[in-house]
């Protein structure tokens, strides 16, 4: 790739679907910036990747690779839930959105969310929901989300 091509930020940071080789590009380490994520062996990664690929478009993980460094610098996922309510409607569930600390402020989170929203829209979802920390709520409001109801959780 020509050097002047990658100097353009729009070209440098392209959103795409997760690929099997992304583990070697820092995908798991990026997730560790978000939450508890132990090391994952190559075999475990391949098995989970294959398992998720069976869901087709109902489970999409996207990444942004820095064209200059070859590292994965942002990711997010959306799972499509099929329901009986709303005329057998569909709901998108956004999860695991994180941008590498070294490139925050470059609109990559917004770009990731936009990609996930476009996918949910293309899958005919009537809404998209997510859980986030209070600290991150301002970011999601800027992306068009609004606070609604209360999240509950029970860990096992």
UniProtKB/TrEMBL annotation:
It holds the Pfam family Acetyltransf_1. It catalyses: D-glucosamine 6-phosphate + acetyl-CoA = N-acetyl-D-glucosamine 6-phosphate + CoA + H(+). GO terms for molecular function: glucosamine 6-phosphate N-acetyltransferase activity. SUPFAM superfamilies: Acyl-CoA N-acyltransferases (Nat). InterPro entries: Acyl_CoA_acyltransferase, GNAT_dom, GNPNAT1-like. It is found in: Endoplasmic reticulum membrane. The keyword Zinc-finger does not apply. Its EC number is 2.3.1.4. Pathway: Nucleotide-sugar biosynthesis; UDP-N-acetyl-alpha-D-glucosamine biosynthesis; N-acetyl-alpha-D-glucosamine 1-phosphate from alpha-D-glucosamine 6-phosphate (route I): step 1/2. Gene3D superfamilies: 3.40.630.30. GO terms for cellular component: endoplasmic reticulum membrane. This is Glucosamine 6-phosphate N-acetyltransferase. It comes from Davidia involucrata.
């Amino acid at each position: 790739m020509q050097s002047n091509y990658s100097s353009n930020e729009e070209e440098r940071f392209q959103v795409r679907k997760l690929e099997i080789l992304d583990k070697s590009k820092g995908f798991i380490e990026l997730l560790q910036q978000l939450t508890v994520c132990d090391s994952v062996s190559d075999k475990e990664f391949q098995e989970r990747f294959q398992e998720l690929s069976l869901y087709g478009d109902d489970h999409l993980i996207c990444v942004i690779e820095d064209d200059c460094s070859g590292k994965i610098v942002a990711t997010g996922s959306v799972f499509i839930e099929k329901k009986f309510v709303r005329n057998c409607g569909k709901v998108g569930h956004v999860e695991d959105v994180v941008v590498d600390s070294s490139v925050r402020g470059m609109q990559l989170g917004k770009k990731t969310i936009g990609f996930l929203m476009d996918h949910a829209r293309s899958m005919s979802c009537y809404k998209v929901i997510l859980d986030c920390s209070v600290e991150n709520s301002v970011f999601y409001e800027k992306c068009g989300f609004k606070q609604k109801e209360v999240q509950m959780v029970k860990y096992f």
